[in-house]
Design a protein that fits this description.
The complex is a heterodimer of chains A (about 350) and B (about 400).
Chain A: H1 7-23, H2 26-35, H3 39-47, H4 66-78, H5 85-99, H6 101-113, E1 118-121, E2 125-127, E3 134-139, E4 142-146, E5 151-156, E6 165-170, E7 176-178, H7 180-215, E8 217-218, E9 221-222, H8 227-255, H9 261-287, H10 298-310, H11 315-327
Parallel strand pairs in A: 1-3
Antiparallel strand pairs in A: 2-6, 3-4, 4-7, 5-6, 8-9
Chain B: H1 7-23, H2 44-56, H3 75-87, H4 96-109, H5 112-123, E1 129-132, E2 148-152, E3 157-168, E4 175-181, E5 192-198, E6 204-208, E7 218-229, E8 233-234, H6 240-250, H7 255-277, H8 283-307, H9 318-342, H10 358-365, H11 376-387
Parallel strand pairs in B: 1-4
Antiparallel strand pairs in B: 2-3, 3-7, 4-5, 5-8, 6-7
The chains are: A alpha+beta (about 350), B alpha+beta (about 400).
The structure holds flavin-adenine dinucleotide.
Chain lengths: ~350, ~400
């Protein structure tokens, strides 16, 4: 039993963090909101090898797993990275690996090399669909490999302007390539990615609010010295700090094929998204009217957190999964059954 | 990262599980699942006997180094011990203050002589301890203690005069550790000493305080020239605050795992009750039970993470500051959830005049969780100022 990351995992995280924080400034995110996706940014991510982190070595990747990537996803959240990197590494690549065969052999090397974008869409939605070279689309619980040119994609404006969500329809003749297990696993990995990014987003909002309340003065004192403000922030800090362990736990369970991985994912998604929602609420409050403006960056992170809360299974979906497990005796609930 | 137990650890699990199954029988069958939080006043004699039985089996103080009579058990083994103890319905530990607070404090800060005198009694399950920190004017502001300690040169003894309050299990304890002022004109955390006092002496009077449960687990303790020897101060006069705070650090160590297992038993009972009386069909109740389950897992994962020596990845020096606020709030909510699951039945006492069932006791006792050991407000101040580095509040 050792609940900790390795030195290598941390170092990798640190180098990605440094890159993201220096490159993905809030101005750049705002710029991309206006201009749409920027191939230069994606090329930078490819150059760092990030699209291939979870691709097996024989296909030109680094051969790492969910546990290695989860710390990176957290950092993507911190900068509200407006690119489908987490989706690529945590959803598309593992799904291709599970499908295997010729499809995996063809597409995994291209994803690792940055020559192709493969995206998974569930329930008639797909993010960044117009940029993909291959779509893996769910319908009726089964997954279909679809050429984007053969799909009908309709763009939707999203409350998170960097999330380019498409409604997608495709030819009903397309043959299914995988069933419910692969679809469920894709959803769980998507949920893990959303949870990890939510941790980063919450941290970003906390950092902003702590900095702001340390400077803003009222009644002759920094507003951050008032207990009512402090206690709001402390509540966020507790939720956020405590949401990390379940996210890492879920990553480990997915990487190791734990039989209750789906349940661990639901715990993680709920904990992290609730932490981010509380962070958003309290950090806006701590900023006063400034927090309500378009000019202050807080809403960039708040809106991504908002979007992620509903992605890959919303609160209702995940909570129901937990309570069903508890009440249907599928879950040993005795004192020893804690890990 | 490895979240599975090793084969040796699983063997250890069998060993303790077997021992508990063999020993929680006969005279001890009646105290299974008893004596936990809110129920701590129950069956004191049987539970004292149980402490001695545990000690005979070598199951007290397992985390202490072998040199001090422990097993030097690894973190994993301690986790397993607590899991199996709770699973088997092991009764609330009477010896926990000595085992988890006094012992580690003496091991860290005490003299050899103090270790030789006090550790064996704790290890044997024979000497019980209580914690004399709070006073009428020193609650959240613990450094405001007024109890005085004077060294009497002729008798070569310390004389302690003053009053402690809210002292849990003082009426059952053999010893008390007390913080008292060694420098008469000092204030705040300077000029304090940390003393080890025998409870059975003419200078000490214990008066129970009745709680809202109708029972008494905590007490007022009056010191009127109570005495202890020259060697019964831990550290030097003036070091009291350092020792007292060091001790609070131990409060948040492995002992938290035992607590979480008790929580798990309570949650299981609530789930069973909800299934029995149909509350499990109420979607609101199901959601709240799911939330409670997740909250408990979160505590558990975090404890394991902390115990793995995790230094990085977050921001806060997490466990120390956060755990108390998290668990107390969680447990207070659990108490309310238990009552909502019971529905109208919750309002009927188990017996006259004021006998409560386990869940009712849980509800009432959990009102205190957010108060003792540092109130939620004080915890939030600490988290904001020390973990988030927010501007300090001017202090009077
Ligand atoms: C069941 C139980 C068992 C206990 N057992 C023991 C024991 O064994 N040994 C022992 O020494 N003590 C024990 N205590 C005492 C416990 O540690 C104190 O109750 C606790 O420290 C709070 O002190 P107080 O009760 O004096 O509350 P006060 O300090 O008077 O607080 C009253 C209210 O004011 C708030 N407040 C106080 N200061 C601040 C501040 N700076 N900022 C914001 N809000 C503030 C508090 O949060 C609280 O809401 C026990 C208490 C209970 C309930």
């Amino acid at each position: 039993m050792h609940f900790d990351f390795t030195e290598d995992q941390r170092l990798f995280r640190d180098s990605v963090r440094n890159f993201l924080r220096s490159e993905i400034t809030s101005e750049r995110v705002r710029g991309l909101w206006e201009s749409g996706p920027d191939t230069a940014l994606w090329s930078q991510l490819v150059e760092l090898g990030l699209t291939g982190v979870t691709v097996p070595e024989e296909h030109g990747g680094l051969g790492m797993d969910e546990l290695d990537f989860v710390l990176l996803a957290e950092q993507c959240g911190y900068v509200a990275l407006p690119e489908p990197l987490v989706h690529t590494a945590l959803v598309a690549v593992p799904t291709l690996k599970e499908i295997g065969g010729g499809l995996a052999a063809t597409w995994l090397p291209r994803v690792a090399a940055g020559d192709a974008l493969v995206l998974v869409g569930l329930a008639g939605w797909v993010e960044d669909g117009d940029r993909a070279q291959l779509l893996l689309l769910e319908r009726g619980g089964e997954l279909h490999a679809v050429d984007p040119d053969a799909a009908e994609l309709r763009a939707n404006a999203s409350v998170d302007p960097s999330r380019r969500l498409f409604t997608v329809r495709f030819n009903s003749a397309a043959e299914a390539i995988a069933g419910t297990a692969v679809v469920g696993a894709a959803r769980d990995r998507g949920a893990l990615g959303a949870a990890a990014q939510s941790l980063g987003l919450a941290q970003r909002m906390v950092d902003m609010a702590v900095a702001y309340t340390g400077e803003r003065k009222q009644f002759g004192k920094p507003v951050g010295s008032f207990q009512a403000v402090k206690h709001h922030m402390a509540n966020v800090a507790v939720r956020l700090e405590y949401a990390r362990a379940p996210v890492y736990r879920a990553a480990w369970s997915l990487a190791n094929g734990h039989p209750r991985a789906a349940l661990h994912v639901s715990q993680a998604k709920l904990a992290a998204c609730e932490a981010a929602a509380l962070a958003a609420k309290n950090c806006i409050q701590a900023h006063g009217a400034m927090g309500y403006t378009w000019e202050v960056d807080l809403h960039i992170y708040m809106k991504k957190a908002w979007a992620l809360a509903g992605a890959w299974g919303d609160t209702g979906f995940h909570k129901q999964r937990v309570s069903d497990a508890l009440f249907e005796d599928k879950l040993p609930i005795g004192a020893g059954a804690t890990f | 990262m490895e979240l599975r137990f090793s084969i040796e650890d699983e063997r250890f699990r069998e060993e303790i599980a077997d021992w508990l199954a063999d020993n929680l029988t006969g005279e001890f069958a009646a105290i299974r699942f008893r004596g936990g939080p809110g129920d701590e006043h129950m069956f004191p004699e049987e539970r004292k006997a149980w402490e001695r039985r545990l000690a005979e089996g070598g199951w007290t103080c397992i985390g202490w180094p072998e040199a001090y009579g422990g097993r030097g058990a690894s973190i994993e083994q301690q986790v397993i011990f607590h899991e199996e103890y709770a699973r088997a319905g092991g009764p609330g530990r009477m010896g926990h203050i000595g085992e988890t607070l006094t012992g580690p404090t003496l091991i860290a800060f005490g003299s050899d002589e103090q270790r030789e005198r006090f550790l064996p009694g704790i290890r044997a399950g024979e000497e019980l301890w209580c914690q004399g920190y709070s006073e009428p004017s020193a609650g959240s502001d613990l450094a405001n203690v007024k109890t005085r300690a004077e060294f009497d040169e002729t008798s070569q003894q310390w004389r302690i005069t003053g009053q402690k309050v809210w002292t849990s299990l003082a009426h059952e304890s053999d010893y008390c550790f007390v913080i008292a002022r060694t420098e008469p004109d000092s204030a705040g955390h300077r000029g304090l000493g940390f003393f080890l006092l025998a409870m059975d002496q003419p200078g000490i009077t214990v008066r129970p305080i009745e709680q809202m449960t109708g029972t008494s687990e905590f007490n007022e303790v009056f010191f009127d020239e109570a005495v202890c020897g020259a060697g019964d101060i831990v550290g030097a006069p003036g070091d009291g605050w350092k020792v007292a705070m060091g001790l609070l650090g131990f409060e948040r160590g492995v002992s938290t795992l035992g607590q979480q297992m008790l929580f798990q038993n309570e949650l299981d009972e609530i789930v069973r009750e909800a299934k029995r009386n149909g509350a499990a069909r109420d979607p609101m109740i199901r959601q709240r039970i799911a939330d409670a389950h997740i909250g408990l897992k979160i505590m558990r994962y975090n404890s394991m993470r902390t115990l793995s020596g995790n230094a990085d990845d977050g921001s806060l020096q997490p466990e120390a500051m956060i755990y108390k606020l998290y668990w107390s709030t969680w447990h207070r909510n659990l108490g309310k959830l238990a009552m909502d699951v019971l529905g109208p039945e919750a309002e009927i006492c188990a017996g006259a005049p004021y006998e409560l069932n386990r869940l009712q006791s849980l509800f009432l006792f959990s009102r205190a969780d957010t108060i003792y050991g540092g109130t939620n407000q004080v915890q939030r101040n600490i988290i904001a100022e020390r973990a988030l580095n927010m501007p300090r509040e001017p202090r009077g």
